[in-house]
Structures are given as C-alpha cells and as structure tokens.
C-alpha cells in the first residue's frame, strides 16, 4: 500500500489545490452536485478516495464521508504505514454512517488499535462488516460493542484464534453471517451466539473448531441457507464429541463439504428445497457411515439433491444401513457428482429405489458399470419405482466412449419407461474424435428403449 502522501500537510495540499483549480477539468469536477461526487467516491478504494482531495477545493473533504472503507495489508514490510493510514482515515472521518468496513491484516501486538478501529465502525452504524485477522501475539478479544451492534446486516469473521464471546449478544438485524477458521471453546456463550440471530437468513461455517463442546445448536427462525465446510483436516479429537444440531423451520438450502468428523442433525427440515453433500473419503469407517446415514435422514425432504460418489463408499461399508434408508418423497432431481457413478452400486440403487417421484437423474462426471455385462438384466432389481412412472430426463457428463459406459447407458434406456430424453455430454477427449462419436451413436440408437418417445441428445 502506498500511503506516504495520501494525507497531505495543509500548505502542500493548498498549493496543489490551487494548481488543480487552474485546470478546467478540476473546475468541471467541482461543479458536479456533491451528492453525485459522494456516490462516485463510494466506488473507489479508500486509498484512491483520499487522493481525490488533491483534485480541487470542493473535493478536499469529500472522502471523509465515503461509505465504504476497506483496508488490507498486502506487504508486511509496510505495516507501520498501513497502521498509521488506517488510524488517520478513521480519525479524520466525519460523523456520517458507514455502509461497509473491512479490515484484513495481522494483529500481532496491536490488538487495542485493531479493536478501536472496529469499535469506530460500530459507532458509525456500519451495515456490512468484514473482519479478517491473523497472527496474534497474546490474548485477543473483539470489542463487546460488536456483539450488540444493531445496524450490521452482514458480518464476515475470519480469525485463526479462539473467539472470546461477549456475555451479552444480540444481532437484531444481522441477515448474513460467515465464520471462518474460528475456534469456539465456551459452550454456553456459543449457544447464546447462535440463538441471538432473530432475522438471520444465511449462515456459512468454514473450518470452525468446537473445542470442548458437546453440542452446537443453530437456532435461527428465519434461516433459509446453511453452509458447513470442513474441508481442512482436523484431528478427530476436535470434532468427535461435538454434535451440530440445526433447528431449521425455514431452511431451504443446505450445503455440506468435508470429512464428516461430527454429527450434523436436523430437528425440522420440512421446507428444504436443495441440498448438496460432498464427503471426502480418506478412509471408510462405520462411525462416519452412521453419520452419513443420519445426515441423509435429516435432508430427506429435499427436492434437489447433489451427492458425490464418496457417499456411496461410506454406505457400502455398513450394509445394515442400506436396509433403513430414508424415503425421499419430495425428491425430483438427483445429481451424482465428482467421480464416475457405478450403476452396479447397491447404495446408488437403494437411493433410487427410495426416490419414488424422481424426474431428473444426472451423472455429472459420467457413468460406468463394474459388473458382468451378460447379467445386466439384474442391475436395477428391484426396479426403482421412479423408472416406471416419473423419470423424464437423464443427463450423463464426461462421456469417454468406453464399453462399460456404453452398457450402463443401455441399461438406463432399457428400464426408463417414461423417459423423454437422455442428454450425453462428451468429454474433451471423446469430442475430438468424430468417427468414434458416429460409431457410438449408431450403437446407442440400436439399443432397446422402453420409452418410444425418448430423444437421444449427444453434445
């Protein structure tokens, strides 16, 4: 950050202003309505907004009311300049409200200064607050005024530190909350935190740790979107005993990505529209299989569901769970993602059998068949009810032209009674060979089709 001359001494600034006023462009800018000038400044980074004070006299103090302030330290060697710049900008600011305040830097030994800046934003009725803090030297606590801020509507908190919560917590207008890399260690205050969000609509939890907590209850009556991302590996001791309990009366979207090192349970999810589950399979275990089964029960009301094939790997290691799969009565679209789906998988078959109203079946990364092709009549036995009454469209991506893929398509065409179309997207490798595509298409259209109106689309 270049900050050495952004806030000039009065004499030097006056001289520059006089020189600029001689220029016609400076005068024309100065003649614009002040409201319009402030609107223009709101789109500039704060460094550039401060520099506009040199354009002409009418711009001299406009930057002091710019609604958006975002400070990020790119070069640690310029830390002193950065800290002084932030301090002077906030000290010289007028009394107008802030729309956005963002701070991204290492804290080190400057905890009190950082807290003063955040408190200043709260005092200016900030609406969007973005806090990204790392590298702490000693203890650190966010200012207590933050936890009772009445104006903040969006809060992004990224901090590689134990979050010390205030005993008094109330966010009456917070609608979007993102928490990253934060460690929660006080069970009572953590429960207070996640139950003091009366109008929260969207919650994202990325790689959070729950040290010493048995249960984390997320209770927000208007919450409609929840994302839990646990893609970074933590030791099992960080999460094994902790259960995430979601009370989601209004929940419409749920996304999970990670190793499922803790239980995620739902009290109510009747309004769920969409869910995406991506599990990382570093090793299969019955414990994680049971967590996966419990999670599927919790999201069984979803209308649109995306699963990656690692889900199948976990369920296969505990055959007893397949006998008690939930019924996905509302499911109309099922997508298998990330890896090729094996049509011979008993877990995939069970999920299809428990999805009676399924209309759209998608294999994003392609489809294969691992069994003996001479016995393909038994692949979809017992037949999933949706194949006989509801399944209208099948989409297959990343088709490579291998024989096992071709036979998997044959089984789908043979058993889908009311299918309108099957859309096959070729991989980049296969798309470059027109001769193979022609041969493939000729074979495909010769396969028996239960649905006589089914169109085959090759993309």
TrEMBL record:
<feature type="domain" description="F-box">
    <location>
        <begin position="26"/>
        <end position="73"/>
    </location>
</feature>
<dbReference type="Pfam" id="PF00646">
    <property type="entry name" value="F-box"/>
</dbReference>
<dbReference type="Pfam" id="PF08387">
    <property type="entry name" value="FBD"/>
</dbReference>
<dbReference type="InterPro" id="IPR055411">
    <property type="entry name" value="LRR_FXL15/At3g58940/PEG3-like"/>
</dbReference>
<feature type="region of interest" description="Disordered">
    <location>
        <begin position="1"/>
        <end position="26"/>
    </location>
</feature>
<dbReference type="InterPro" id="IPR001810">
    <property type="entry name" value="F-box_dom"/>
</dbReference>
<dbReference type="InterPro" id="IPR036047">
    <property type="entry name" value="F-box-like_dom_sf"/>
</dbReference>
<protein>
    <recommendedName>
        <fullName>F-box domain-containing protein</fullName>
    </recommendedName>
</protein>
<dbReference type="InterPro" id="IPR006566">
    <property type="entry name" value="FBD"/>
</dbReference>
<dbReference type="InterPro" id="IPR053781">
    <property type="entry name" value="F-box_AtFBL13-like"/>
</dbReference>
<dbReference type="InterPro" id="IPR032675">
    <property type="entry name" value="LRR_dom_sf"/>
</dbReference>
<dbReference type="InterPro" id="IPR050232">
    <property type="entry name" value="FBL13/AtMIF1-like"/>
</dbReference>
<dbReference type="Pfam" id="PF24758">
    <property type="entry name" value="LRR_At5g56370"/>
</dbReference>
């Amino acid at each position: 950050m270049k900050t050495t001359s952004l806030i000039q001494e009065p004499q030097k600034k006056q001289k520059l202003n006089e020189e600029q006023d001689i220029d016609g462009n400076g005068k024309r800018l100065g003649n614009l309505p002040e409201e319009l000038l402030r609107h223009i400044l709101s789109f500039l980074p704060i460094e550039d907004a401060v520099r506009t004070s040199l354009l002409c006299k009418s711009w001299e103090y406009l930057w002091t009311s710019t609604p958006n302030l975002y400070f990020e330290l790119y070069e640690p060697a310029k830390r002193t300049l950065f800290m002084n710049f932030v301090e002077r900008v906030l000290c010289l600011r007028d009394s107008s409200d802030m729309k956005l305040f963002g701070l991204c830097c290492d804290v080190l030994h400057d905890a009190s200064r950082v807290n003063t800046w955040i408190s200043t934003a709260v005092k200016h009725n900030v609406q969007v607050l973005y806090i990204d803090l790392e590298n702490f030297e000693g203890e650190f606590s966010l200012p207590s005024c933050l936890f009772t801020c009445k104006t903040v509507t969006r809060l992004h908190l990224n901090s590689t530190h134990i979050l010390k919560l205030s005993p008094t917590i109330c966010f009456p207008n917070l609608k979007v909350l993102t928490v990253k890399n934060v460690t929660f260690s006080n069970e009572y205050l953590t429960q207070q935190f996640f139950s003091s969000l009366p109008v929260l609509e969207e919650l994202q939890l990325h790689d959070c740790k729950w040290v010493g907590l048995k249960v984390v209850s997320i209770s927000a009556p208007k919450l409609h979107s929840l994302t839990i991302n646990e893609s970074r590996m933590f030791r099992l001791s960080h999460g094994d005993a902790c259960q995430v309990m979601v009370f989601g009366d209004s929940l419409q979207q749920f996304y999970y990505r990670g190793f499922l090192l803790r239980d995620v349970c739902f009290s109510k999810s009747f309004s769920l529209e969409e869910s995406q589950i991506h599990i990382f399979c570093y090793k299969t275990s019955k414990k994680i299989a049971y967590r996966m089964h419990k999670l599927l029960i919790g999201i069984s009301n979803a209308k649109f569901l995306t699963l990656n094939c690692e889900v199948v790997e976990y369920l296969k290691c505990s055959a007893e769970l397949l006998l008690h799969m939930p019924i996905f009565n509302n499911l109309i679209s099922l997508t298998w993602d990330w890896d090729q789906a094996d049509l011979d998988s008993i877990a995939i078959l069970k999920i299809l059998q428990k999805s009676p109203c399924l209309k759209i079946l998608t294999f994003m990364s392609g489809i294969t068949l691992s069994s003996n092709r001479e016995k393909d009549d038994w692949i979809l036995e017992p037949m999933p009810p949706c194949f006989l009454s509801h399944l209208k469209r099948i989409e297959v991506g990343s088709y490579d032209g291998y024989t096992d893929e071709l036979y998997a398509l044959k089984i789908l065409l043979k058993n889908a009674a009311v299918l309108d179309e099957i859309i096959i997207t070729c991989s980049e490798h296969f798309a470059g060979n027109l001769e193979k595509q022609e041969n493939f298409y000729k074979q495909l259209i010769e396969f028996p089709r239960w649905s006589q109106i089914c169109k085959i689309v090759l993309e």
